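User: Can you predict the 3D structure of Transmembrane protein? Sequence below.
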Amino acid sequence: MLFFKAVASFAAMAACIMPVLSAPVAEANTDVSSVIVKRGALNDPAQTCYHEVQKKCDDIDGKINAVVEIDAKLGAILVVDLEVILGLLLGLGDTLKVVIGGGGLNPDDIKACVATVILIVKLCGAILIRIAAKLAATVSVSIFAAVVLKLHACIVVIINLLIGVCPLYGLLALVVDLTACLTAFVGVCTSIGINV
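Assistant: Sure. Here are the predicted structure tokens for Transmembrane protein:
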């Protein structure tokens, strides 16, 4: 009888302490913010810029589709639209400069940012081709030259920022992709008659 009481007491005691023994051990709270930037520090602003540029390109496309050809009046409006895109890229360049200057970047974030920047540059190139294709014979592409030169300069800054950081994280293949992207954009500008 005493044996059964001892077993019952042991079982009751075990039931009480088991939750304590199986509770997870708390790990020390380590602040890693100084070691690595949060995921998305580069790509989140790049994605935001991409969506805004895409919206503006869609807006430009709508204006182009609404006419047979682009006259001088619409051309002046499209210059202003391209300046909006330029402003978005300038903002992205400033943000990337700050984030990259802080160091401790995440390689996956760099890869994602590079892919997004390449998409942005392709959007810019595509809309320039659309504009040039619909220009009236009486309108010179030179009305777009000033804004396209600024756009090119801004793209060069952004791409050079990323080219500078990629080798530090062993992402040499991305340097090739970025260089090809810039070369393609220069090719677009040249093809529409604007030498950058």
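The two ends are 98 Å apart (CA to CA). The chain is about 75% helix and 0% strand.
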